[in-house]
Structures are given as C-alpha cells and as structure tokens.
Design a protein that fits this description.
single chain, 277 residues, alpha+beta, Jelly Rolls, nine-stranded mixed β-sheet, five-stranded mixed β-sheet, globular
Length: 277
C-alpha cells in the first residue's frame, strides 16, 4: 500500500456500473467502490423522513441498541415506541450513551417501507438480508463482515466511512470480527500500532451506495439524521475458509459457528412469528 503521506487512500467512484463491470473490477478481486445513480432512483429517497415513519408506525414498539461510544460489543437491546425513538435521535445528544435502530430486517421492523426500495442487481444471491439503520450521532466500532459481502445504501443523510484492507489487521487490535478500538480519535498511547495502519476514507451521501468486500475492516460515523438499508449476502465457503493475508485463520471456525447460530436464530424467529401470526 501507499505511504502514510498519501492518506487517506481514495475509494473508486462509479456511476451505475454494469453487473459485469462491478463483478470484474470489485466483487471478484475484493475491492470497495462507491456507486452513484442506483439508490437515487428509489422512491425511499423522497419519502423517508421522521414524518413518514411516524405516520406509518409511530406507535409501534421497535428494538433499539443502547451503547456507549459506539461500542457494539457492550450494547444492550431494548424496546422503544418508534415516535419516542425518532424524537430522541432528532435532538442533540447528551453524554456518551446513544440509541440506534439498527441490525434488524426492514421487513421485521417496518414492513410498510420495504416497497420503497429495490434490491440492487449487484446482490448476486437470493439469500440476502436487507437490514435497516435509522438514527443520528452514532458511530460503529471498527469491524468486518466474516460471512460475505455488503452494500451500504444511503437513503437520507450521510455517513463517513473509514476502511482498512484485510492486510491491515495486525494494526487494528482484533477481537473476533471487531477491533478493540471503539472510535475516533484513537488513543495512540493505548493503541500505538494503529498509527501504522493504511486506510481509505469516503463520504456516502444520500442516493449513493458503498460496497464492502468480505474481511474489509470499516468504521462508520453518522452525525446527522440518517436512514439506510444494508444488503448482506454470504460468500462461498471457499472464500470464507481461505481469508486474505492478514486475517488469522484460527478465527475462521469460530465465524462459521457464529454463522450457523445466526441462521438458526433467524429460522426460530420465523417459526415463532408464523405461530403467533
């Protein structure tokens, strides 16, 4: 990679590439890319705001994460009425605690809005998850996806994303698929190796999408009110079991066990939902 003098490295930016171009240049070699001209065509871009969400489901209870300084590892889950949650995230935050409507299937929490977007053609699997993220003044702990690819589709607001290639893992204080580093600014006395890390940085604005290859580290900053859908789909077992340089192989069996547990939990939730329905 380039020297620190050239940081941050730049993420490629393309306007509505063909599926063939996307696969050849980015999906297959495992390289991030910022794509314009796709999400901007969604009805969601003109609809999704606080008033719209409240009109559809303001009285509904939704599961939210409560965390300190973006630390997902220590987060707890609680229920809030959607209208109350939206009122909180539309105010300036106080203290270090945050709540975040995240990591839940759009169809589970707000099925009424699932028709406002379409699945991007770049998602080359019928077994994908469309996960909603609605909130403000939050950041995600640096982490990577050990199961497959992801597309962050920004509907409203914007996010600032810092990405690290898998070969930067030795500088990121790995704990499973998370970094022990919780957020910026990083205390280099506590985490001195971080100062050697090479990184990419980009802003994902409303109507844009960012592609995350498997095993690419990233931290996401969300300051203003923002809504997004992230599509996750699994890579082949070969790619999962043969991680790129930098990612210790000893974690791979643990990731596979986690994958089985997640799938089992989703299956159980579907069964329970059908029984209750």
């Amino acid at each position: 990679m380039n020297s620190n003098e050239k940081l941050p490295l730049q993420v490629d930016r393309l306007h509505a590439p063909s599926v063939e171009e996307f696969n050849k240049l980015y999906a297959e070699p495992g390289k991030p890319v910022l794509i314009t001209g796709v999400v901007s065509e969604w009805n969601a871009c003109s609809l999704w705001n606080t008033q719209y969400f409240n009109a559809l489901a303001g009285e509904r209870s939704v599961p939210v994460k409560r965390m300190r300084n973006g630390a997902y590892l220590g987060a707890s889950t609680e229920s809030m009425k959607l209208a109350d949650y939206l009122a909180v995230v539309n105010k300036e935050p106080v203290g270090s605690e945050r709540v975040y409507l995240s990591e839940r299937s759009v169809k589970d929490i707000l099925p009424e809005i699932a028709g406002d977007y379409t699945v991007p053609a770049y998602v080359n699997s019928t077994k994908f998850a469309a996960v909603g993220y609605i909130g403000s003044h939050v950041h995600s702990q640096i982490h990577f996806h050990p199961f497959g690819k992801a597309l962050l589709c920004q509907v409203t607001g914007r996010k600032r994303v810092k990405l690290f290639a898998p070969d930067q893992t030795p500088y990121l204080y790995q704990k499973l698929h998370f970094s022990k580093i919780e957020g910026e600014p990083v205390d280099l006395e506590e985490y001195p190796l971080y100062g050697k890390a090479q990184y990419y940085e980009c802003e994902v604005n409303a109507g844009e999408m960012l592609f995350f290859p498997i095993y690419w580290w990233h931290g996401v900053e969300t300051e203003e009110f923002s809504s997004a859908v992230v599509f996750f789909w699994d890579d082949s077992r070969k790619l999962r079991w043969l991680p790129p340089e930098g990612v210790p192989w000893r974690y791979v069996p643990l990731f596979e066990i986690m994958s089985w547990l997640f799938k089992g939990k989703r299956m159980l939730n579907r069964v329970l939902k059908s029984v209750r329905g």
